[in-house]
Design brief:
The complex is a heterodimer of chains A (203) and B (511). Chain A has 203 residues and is α/β, with parallel strands linked by helices. Chain A is built from five helices and ten strands, in the order E-H-E-H-E-E-H-E-H-E-E-E-E-E-H. Chain A has one domain: P-loop containing nucleotide triphosphate hydrolases (Rossmann fold). Chain A is globular, with a radius of gyration of 17 Å. Chain B has five domains: 63 residues, MutS, DNA mismatch repair protein, domain I (3-Layer(aba) Sandwich); 120 residues, no CATH class; 109 residues, 2-Layer Sandwich (Dna Ligase, domain 1), CATH 3.30.1490; 59 residues, no CATH class; 91 residues, no CATH class. Classes of the chains: A alpha/beta (203), B alpha+beta (511). Strand 3 of chain A pairs antiparallel with strand 12 of chain B, so a sheet runs across the interface.
């Protein structure tokens, strides 16, 4: 299955389904495929509330981590990163609805990303979807994972509920998906798990 | 500096200036006079004489032990101080300094003016100096110790030969340098074949063999200087000074094939205080635009107070940067761009906030994910490894090394969370049995019903590092009813003798 994708690298906004839900990271990292390093910016509150990036859990160790004091510093660091073509992507986590994060700020990031060709992802933890210049706006929540073939009681392959609620050139949509073998697969709603497994296997 | 020892002593003594003092050193047959005050000299005390002889002439002479090491240290300090006149200064013997002033004198308005300047400065610090400028170092030494402006009438001891040789020369009737110069070289060489080579000394003095200064100081740091006509008090002054200094510094760096790792802009205020802005870079660079961007913000923050009257821009730490690498700088290469990004981020946010992961061999999760300041990872360690294979990039591993067939390391992949709390947070857990699977937990007042659980994965304390009371941890991967996945652990076991009931903690979040 192919998820809607921006025609060129730009700014996407990802709202975590819950501030203490780390599912968006899996959804995001599954899309990034490049041999270039990442810039990962976290503001102080994001680190306090939902933890610091843990490289052993990631599939890449090639990243530069920035611990920003506040949203203003985080946005500045993101913009600096976006201007650097040697990066594969810039990820910025911002907690809540800071004053610095307004339409102008997001628009700046979007324009900079389109100019330099470095994809930027603005992660909103516990924030509201106000006016934004982002080209795609997602809401990502963890979904019950797929059945673990080896141990039915254990969590399996992670799945996510992804809602694209605003995008330029794409109709909004809502999918429950998992990522396996470099592809996203549709997964049925958790209530109808057996059907979902069948669909995934036949896809 | 003929009176250095006595002048140094006089500065730190509370004897009246007209006291007959002699400084002595221990000789074979008792104390020998090392230096004398003027009053003592008037009473017949002479440098090199024995103390008993001086006492015989005048019993009032006071003997004080000399401090040759302290004198030597002072001479060393004066040598550094004298580098204001010439970059090449050498300590010559116990009481003399040699300066190579070739091509320097015109900066001070000619040789005569240079000598006057040196005299004035030495007078200001209270040290008597006899100064001579001559085409050779040996001749300058002779003039400064024996006076005069012509070599020929000087006594042969001006050649700095040992006492025996001088006595031999005197017996031969060769009392002056001029007389020695008239003797055929061959005869001189044959006669003085032994320890002290008279011909060589003569050649040094006459400039027939070069006698370069050996104490060339270490290479001076690349530095650009801007002196202002008037003290500048406006806040833009440091930034403007920076713009004017950078081209000069970059040119020096180019000539010496160096790149900057640490750079500082120093503002000299009129009241003698300094204001310093310093930045460090991740790889050596000498690109003017980059250096300007790095320092501009910090320079603007320098407070002029009563005004700056000079600025210097100093490359405090440099590394070799070849011309070939310089030309690469014109086109953006990944490594260079990244290093610049790290520089910019570090300058603004501080080195502790811009970091790169550094894996540690440890099973403890919080130790395994080490971080190191991105600017500190040296370029060699950044660029080592299979740089050629990955196309010139700094970054070695592909992003998805799991999906590219290379086996993930034991501690990475799906069994480690993507996010780790800086400190594990205590949670309340409901479980079926104390040693069994957790059923439900409360974290930050939110209840999570555990739908699926995998574990435990036992991580024992690192006994060689942790205190002996540390308890083992049983980690569980849990998924709550909404599908959120967490990493929780139980610390300790019942009856492990290391505390009461085991506590539960949450440590990480899964994707």
């Amino acid at each position: 299955m192919l998820l809607p994708k921006a025609p060129q690298p730009s700014l996407s906004e990802l709202f975590a389904g819950h501030p203490r839900d780390g599912g968006w990271a899996g959804f995001l990292l599954a899309q990034l495929a490049a041999d270039k390093p990442l810039l990962w910016v976290q503001d102080r509150m994001a680190i306090l509330e939902s933890g610091r990036v843990h490289p052993p859990g990631l599939r890449t160790h090639d990243l530069i981590h920035v611990e920003a004091r506040d949203a203003r510093d985080a946005l500045w660091a993101m913009e600096e990163g976006i201007r650097c073509a040697a990066l594969s992507a810039v990820i910025g986590e911002i907690w809540g609805d800071p004053r610095a994060l307004d339409f102008t700020a997001t628009r700046r990031l979007a324009v900079a990303a389109e100019r330099s060709g470095v994809a930027a992802f603005l992660i909103r933890l516990g924030g509201h979807a106000n006016l934004s210049g982002a080209r795609m706006r997602w809401r990502i929540a963890s979904a019950p994972s797929l059945t673990n073939q080896l141990d039915p009681r254990a969590p399996g392959l992670p799945a996510w509920g992804a809602e694209l609620f605003r995008a330029r050139g794409h109709p909004p949509g809502r999918w429950t998906i998992a990522h396996e073998a470099d592809r996203f697969h549709l997964v049925a709603e958790p209530g109808d798990r057996a059907l979902g497994e069948v669909e995934r296997l036949s896809a | 500096m003929p009176n250095l020892a006595i002048e140094r002593w006089a500065k730190s003594s509370d004897y009246p200036p007209d006291a007959p003092i002699v400084l002595t050193v221990e000789g074979t047959h008792g104390p020998i006079i090392h230096a004398v005050t003027k009053a003592a000299a008037d009473r017949g005390a002479r440098t090199g004489a024995r103390l008993t002889d001086a006492r015989a002439l005048d019993p009032a002479v006071v003997a004080i032990p000399a401090d040759p090491e302290g004198d030597a240290a002072l001479v060393e300090r004066l040598a550094r101080w004298a580098s204001r006149w010439s970059p090449l200064v050498e300590v010559d013997g116990a009481d003399a300094l040699r300066l190579d002033v070739s091509g320097v004198a015109h900066l001070f308005g000619g040789e005569a003016a240079l000598v006057r300047d040196i005299e004035r400065c030495f007078a200001r610090i209270g040290v008597t100096a006899r100064i001579a400028i001559a085409p050779t170092a040996a001749a300058a030494w002779a003039f400064s110790h024996f006076g005069g402006g012509d070599l020929a009438p000087l006594h042969v001891s001006a050649l700095r030969l040992d006492a025996d040789t001088i006595r031999t020369l005197e017996r031969l009737g060769l009392k002056t340098v001029g007389a020695l110069m008239d003797v055929p070289r061959l005869a001189l060489a044959r006669r003085f074949r032994g320890a002290e080579n008279v011909v060589a000394a003569l050649d040094r003095m006459l400039g027939r063999t070069p006698e370069p200064l050996t104490a060339a100081p270490t290479d001076p740091l690349p530095r650009a200087l801007l002196k202002l006509e008037e003290p500048a008090t406006h806040p833009e002054a440091p930034g403007q000074a920076l713009d004017r200094l950078i081209p000069g510094l970059v040119q020096q760096l180019q000539e010496r094939h160096l790149g900057v790792r640490r750079l500082s802009l120093t503002g000299y205020r009129v009241d003698g205080s300094l204001a310093i802005a310093a930045v460090a870079t991740a790889i050596p660079t000498r690109e003017p635009k980059h250096l300007q961007r790095l320092l501009a913000e910090k320079a603007a923050a320098l407070d002029p107070e009563f005004g700056f009257d000079a600025f210097t821009l100093t490359a405090e730490w440099t590394e070799t940067l070849d011309a070939a690498q310089d030309s690469l700088a014109e086109e953006p290469s990944g490594e260079r761009e990244l290093a610049r990004l790290v520089d910019r981020l570090t300058v603004k946010l501080g080195p502790k906030r811009v970091r790169r992961p550094q894996a540690h061999e440890s099973h403890l999760p919080e130790r395994a994910s080490g971080w190191v300041a991105a600017v500190q990872s040296s370029p060699s360690s950044l660029g080592e490894g299979d740089r050629s294979k990955s196309g010139g990039g700094v970054w070695r591993r592909p992003l998805h090394h799991a999906s590219h067939g290379s086996p993930p390391r034991a501690s990475s992949g799906r069994n480690r969370p993507q996010r780790l709390l800086d400190r594990p947070e205590a949670i309340d857990v409901i479980y079926a049995t104390p040693e069994g699977m957790p059923r439900r937990f409360v974290w930050r007042r939110a209840v999570h019903d555990i739908a699926r659980v995998e574990g435990p994965e036992r991580i024992a304390p690192e006994w060689w590092r942790q205190p002996s009371g540390a308890r083992l941890r049983d980690y569980y991967r849990v998924e709550d009813a909404e599908g959120r996945r967490y990493w929780i652990y139980r610390e300790g076991l019942i009856g492990d003798g290391r505390g009461g009931l085991p506590g539960w903690f949450i440590h990480g979040l899964f994707e």
